[in-house]
Amino acid sequence: MAVSLKHAEHDYIVARQERYMDTYRKGDAKKMMEWMDPDEFVYSDITGNQTGLKHGKVHSAFQQTFADYHDLEVKTLSLHGHKNFTAWEWLITYKPAKDQHGARLAKEHTPPKKAVGCTLMWWKNDKIVKNHDYYQPRDPEA
After folding, report:
1. Contact between residue 110 and residue 140 where contact means Cβ atoms under 8 Å apart
2. What would the pLDDT profile of 95-119 be if each residue is shown by its tens digit?
3. Are the CB atoms for 89 and 79 separated by under 8 Å?
4. 3-state secondary structure labels for all residues of the chain
5. What is the pLDDT of residues 2-48, one digit of tens each?
6. Is 140 within 8 Å of 93 (Cβ atoms)?
7. pTM for the whole thing?
8. Is 71 left (phi over 0), alpha (psi -120 to 50) or beta?
9. Virtual CA dihedral for 30, 47, 41, 11, nearest 10 degrees?
10. Distance CA 120, CA 85 (A)
11. Residue of 103, 93, 89, 70 whose CA lies nearest to 142
12. Residues 134, 47: contact at Cβ < 8 Å?
């Protein structure tokens, strides 16, 4: 007999994460910010050495991400935790929409890119209060 590793909050955190990703897939920075606690939210991109970012900078980062990449696709590799904390392992594929000089690129002429990462999220009342991103670029063929 197989032993279930699910705990009481597993289905809850999976459903919440899917709602979060549905918002992300729409590419609307303002809607993404609705997931963040209005008072306590702090974001850190550990790999990019940007820590302690608040609403304004994170909103701008979402806007830039949605504008600067074609075909953003995020796949959940694993999700663990509980209502107040989750560790989310993901794989993202994308195509840059700008070259190194800032010139706009058509997605047909852009090579695909890939990154893997883990996002640690601290939650309060289904709002993110703290978010740490760790990621590493990968070979798109791997």
Report:
1. no
2. 888 888 888 888 888 888 999 999 9
3. yes
4. CCCCCCCCCHHHHHHHHHHHHHHHHCCCHHHHHCCECCCCCEEEECCCCEEEECHHHHHHHHHHHHHHEEEEEEEEEEEEEECCEEEEEEEEEEEECECCCCCECCHHHCCCEEEEEEEEEEEECCEEEEEEEEEEEECCCC
5. 445 677 899 999 999 999 999 999 999 999 999 999 999 999 999 98
6. yes
7. 0.86
8. left
9. 80
10. 7
11. 93
12. yes
**Buried b or exposed e, range 77-105, using 16+ CB within 10 angstroms:** eebebeeeebebebebbbbebeeeeeeee
Residue 1, pLDDT score: 46
Per the DSSP assignment, residues forming a β-bridge with 44 are 132
